[in-house]
């Protein structure tokens, strides 16, 4: 696995960032997952607008056709135990070419980029008409090596989810993409559950993937709040993908793993605060601390009256705020000296009060 570690591959995220956004990135790329046509086109456009207002960098859709993604008779067992037809589910939520065109126009009008997750070469052919900035592949296609190869050959950046898989399966996917001549790759750690529990997040897998393959790694977050996204950012995640809903009352598919606009905005704010909060690691006095060094640190004070000529003993002194006088770390230099003048109880001790 170490064979993937090269300067060029480690720098792949920089190339991807430039591809997706004009400015250099210092915080993760935040993708608001809208999904397929789980609601009317009008509501989907409202979700895109909300993502833009929340500060997301991109929105993401899902591009598929029921006939090429599923087989009649196949079922899903949902988190609540209910069983539904895969074919019927996908058929109900297909985005048509006209839907893609309408969403493309809307995204352009409001100034937010979009990408999509295709599930078949026909979907890629459709998406190529819109010149996508990248392709996102789902965890369901991590082992679909012919499809990964086909997407890689398009020459666009790839964001690849790695849920439901072993490290060996990720290795084979990475080998396939690289062999196709595409090294512009970001892996996404992911737990496939809707919603996923924080205790199942296994975020250290982000570092495992980074170390194993040398490619940048992000998180596809299916938990119910921003907590794991913030932690992932602290662990070096370069992409955060999170589902967005207008309102949980709509009960759209994946809604339990989605954030409403208020929560999504909080996620964006907190994720973007992480690099600043981590800082540069240099231990120093910050400008905001200067006033507190005087007010909160302590000095030596007389606790009793000390007549001139009296030898200073430890029990004549106390230590308290503020730090306007002799600092406590000089206590040993004060003990044993004589008072040059009368020092009243409660007085701040200064060097000019003491004999040399």
What can you tell me about this protein's structure?
It is a single chain. By secondary structure, this protein is of the alpha/beta class. It contains 14 helices and 13 strands. The chain has helices spanning 7-10, 12-20, 41-54, 66-69, 86-92, 97-110, 121-128, 145-152, 167-179, 205-213, 227-234, 261-278, 290-296, 331-334; strands at residues 29-35, 58-63, 75-77, 83-85, 113-118, 135-137, 158-161, 185-190, 217-221, 239-244, 258-259, 299-302, 317-320. Strands 1, 2, 5, 6, 7, 8, 9, 10 and 11 form a 9-stranded parallel sheet that branches. Helix 11 packs parallel to helix 12 (261-278). It is elongated, with a radius of gyration of 30 Å. Residues 5-12 have low confidence and may be disordered.
User: Pairing-aware structural class of the strands and helices?
Assistant: alpha/beta
Helix content: 25-40%
Radius of gyration: 30 Å
The fraction of residues assigned to DSSP E strands is 15-25%
- Taken from the alpha-carbon principal axes, the silhouette is elongated
Counting DSSP E segments of at least 2 residues, the number of strands comes to: 13
How far apart the termini lie comes to 69 Å
Sketch the topology as an H/E string, one letter per element. Answer: HHEHEHEEHHEHEHEHEHEHEEHHEEH
Main sheet summary: 9 strands, parallel
Mean pLDDT: 91
In DSSP terms (H or I, runs of 4 or more residues), the helix count works out at: 14
Low-confidence stretches: 5-12
């Amino acid at each position: 696995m170490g064979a993937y570690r090269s300067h060029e591959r480690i720098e792949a995220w920089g190339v991807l960032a430039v591809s997706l956004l004009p400015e250099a990135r210092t915080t993760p790329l935040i993708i608001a997952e809208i999904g397929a046509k789980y609601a009317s086109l009008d509501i989907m456009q409202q979700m895109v607008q909300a993502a833009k207002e929340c500060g997301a960098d991109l929105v993401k859709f899902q591009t598929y056709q029921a006939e090429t993604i599923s087989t009649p008779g196949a079922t899903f067992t949902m988190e609540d135990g209910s069983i539904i037809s895969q074919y019927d589910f996908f058929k109900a939520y297909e985005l048509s070419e006209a839907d893609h065109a309408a969403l493309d126009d809307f995204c352009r009008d409001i100034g937010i980029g979009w990408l999509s997750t295709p599930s078949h070469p026909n979907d890629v052919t459709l998406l190529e008409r819109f010149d996508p900035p990248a392709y996102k592949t789902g965890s369901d296609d991590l082992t679909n090596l012919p499809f990964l190869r086909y997407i890689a050959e398009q020459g666009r950046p790839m964001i690849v989810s790695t849920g439901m898989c072993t490290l060996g399966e990720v290795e084979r996917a990475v080998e396939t993409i690289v062999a196709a001549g595409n090294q512009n790759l970001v892996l996404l750690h992911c737990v496939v559950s809707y919603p996923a529990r924080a205790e199942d997040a296994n975020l250290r897998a982000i570092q495992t993937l980074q170390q194993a393959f040398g490619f940048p790694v992000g998180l596809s977050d299916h938990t119910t709040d921003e907590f794991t996204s913030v932690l992932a950012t602290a662990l070096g995640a370069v992409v955060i993908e999170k589902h967005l809903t207008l309102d949980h009352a709509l009960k759209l598919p994946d809604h339990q793993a989605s954030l409403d606009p208020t929560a999504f905005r909080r996620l964006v704010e907190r994720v973007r605060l992480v690099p600043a909060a981590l800082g540069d690691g240099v231990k120093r006095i910050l400008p905001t601390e200067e006033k507190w060094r005087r007010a909160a640190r302590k000095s030596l004070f007389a606790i009793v009256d000390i007549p001139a000529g009296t030898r200073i003993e430890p029990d004549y002194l106390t230590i308290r705020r503020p730090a306007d006088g002799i600092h406590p770390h000089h206590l040993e230099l004060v003990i044993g000296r004589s008072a040059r003048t009368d020092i009243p109880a409660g007085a701040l001790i200064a060097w000019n009060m003491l004999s040399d």
